[in-house]
Each structure stands twice: as structure tokens, then as C-alpha cells.
Amino acid sequence: MKKLLAPALIAGLLLGGCATQPSSVGYEPQLLLATPRQADPQVEIQLAKLSELLQVPDLTEQQRARFLYDRGIRYDAVGLRTLARIDFNQALSLQPDYTDVYNFIGIYATQAMEFDQAYQAFDAVLELDPEFTFAYLNRGIALYYGERADLAVQDLTTFLLEEPSDPYRAIWLYLAQQELDSEQALIQLADHRTRMDEDNWATGLVDLFLGRIGAGDLLASSREGLSQQGELAERLCEAYFYLGKRARLQGDNGKAMNLYKLALATNVYEFVEHRYALMEMRQVAESAMAEAEARTRDRAPTF
């Protein structure tokens, strides 16, 4: 999912270098692999320059906060999230009303399953800037993973209404709604589908959840109409994540785990799907452990 985490500042940080090769990994015929993204030399140069600028002694607090934020989003783009989080926290200590920083802190808190901290961060974003609508997406995702689906639906509905034809917005709303009423969630997703562009590749992700296409069709379509280097890796990151979500909804956690691993293998770090694939895997593992413990208790002898 592009451009859904931090507005324009992430543009230009997408990394190139991707190739396609059919493979027989074992889940579906014609399963595709893309060469994982490699670090962009330009981003590495920008990181070095920003580190030099931060050594200048007479920077104002606002300048230092901005340079820390700029370096943080570049660390994030190459997967160095601990370093990014350090920079974001330092930037916020210097400029407590830095809206973009609160947004990232909320995202990182969600990934760490620190949901109360995430809610507070996104609340701060919207208090500082009510027009920062991506906070509704990010808070909605945090509420979804924090098992507060009713509130997640409210935020994700607000986000969808801003752009009703966006497949990604409709999918995340559907995922939250199906926690409350799976049949009604499908009906509403089908209704949202009527407003989508047939030529948008991501519309196929909606068709996947609606059962109109299968995994093979979706993966085949990911190779069509590629316009820039690295685009296949981006599409496969999305495809494998949502295939994993569908597998979880169908109760096939083993298949879901493998698909999430494939999403992570693309190295498209700044995409929503890459960010939350690892959380999905953690949830699957915790669920499996809980089920195993329950079976052990059930088999335990009683005296």
C-alpha cells in the first residue's frame, strides 16, 4: 500500500532493483519471487549528509528536530527501524508539536503491540492537525490489531470516505468489519467494489477477498503493466500479505505464515503490508501456542 504512512515525505524514498522469476515454492503454481529491494545509494548518501548536519553546533531546536525526522524516515525506508525510532523520539523532545513524528511513533508502537501508546500518538496527531487523515488509517489499524474492531471500523470508514474508490482503504475497512459481522462485511466490500477502477491493479486484491479471482490470477496480474523498476516487488509485498490474510480468515495458519514470509522477503519496508506481516506472524504463533497449551491441559490426567 503506497503513501499511506506519512504523506509526501516518503515520496522519493522508494528503492529500485527488482527482477521477476517464476518459482515453485510450494504454495501455488506460478508463485513469483522478486529480487529483494537493495539499499538505494542516494538514501545512504542522504543519511551521511544528515548525520553531518546534525553535528553543526548552532542549529535551532526546530532545525535539529527536522533533520532528525528526515534522517528517521530514511532509516525507516531501509529497514533500520530502531535507529529511526531513536531519531523520532529525539525530534519529538525538541519539538513537542511535531505531527509527522507522532504519526510514526504511533505506527512503531502498533508494530510493537504497545496499543495504548499508539492510540495516544494518533490522538495527538489529530488534535494537532485534524486534516491529517492518514492518522485515521493508522489509528484504525492499531485498533484492529488491539481487538477494538468497533472503533477501528469508525476510523477506517472515515478514511475510506475521503477516497471511496481506493481498494486499500476498502480492504482495511473490510478486515475490521469482518471481526464484527463477516457476512455484512462482504456485502459492504462488494458495494465498495462498484466504485473502483477496473484498470487499477489493486482492485484485484478486493476481488480476491470477494472470491472473484484466485491466488494464481492475482499473482499473474502482478506482472502486467509494470511501469517502473521495483514495482513488481511492491505488488508482491501487497499480494502475499493479503493472500496471507485470506488464508488466516480461512483458518489455514500454516499457509498464512509462509505467505507473510514472502511479503517480508521483498524488503519493501515502508509499505503497510510489510510493516504488519511480522505482527501477523507473531499472532499466528501465539495462537498456535495457546491451542497447544489448551490441548495439553485437556489431555492432562485428573485425580
From TrEMBL:
<keyword id="KW-0472">Membrane</keyword>
<feature type="repeat" description="TPR">
    <location>
        <begin position="99"/>
        <end position="132"/>
    </location>
</feature>
<dbReference type="InterPro" id="IPR050498">
    <property type="entry name" value="Ycf3"/>
</dbReference>
<keyword id="KW-0564">Palmitate</keyword>
<comment type="function">
    <text>May be involved in cell division.</text>
</comment>
<keyword id="KW-0732">Signal</keyword>
<dbReference type="InterPro" id="IPR019734">
    <property type="entry name" value="TPR_rpt"/>
</dbReference>
<protein>
    <recommendedName>
        <fullName>Lipoprotein NlpI</fullName>
    </recommendedName>
</protein>
<keyword id="KW-0802">TPR repeat</keyword>
<dbReference type="InterPro" id="IPR011990">
    <property type="entry name" value="TPR-like_helical_dom_sf"/>
</dbReference>
<comment type="subunit">
    <text>Homodimer.</text>
</comment>
<keyword id="KW-0449">Lipoprotein</keyword>
<dbReference type="InterPro" id="IPR023605">
    <property type="entry name" value="Lipoprotein_NlpI"/>
</dbReference>
<keyword id="KW-1003">Cell membrane</keyword>
<feature type="signal peptide">
    <location>
        <begin position="1"/>
        <end position="19"/>
    </location>
</feature>
<keyword id="KW-0677">Repeat</keyword>
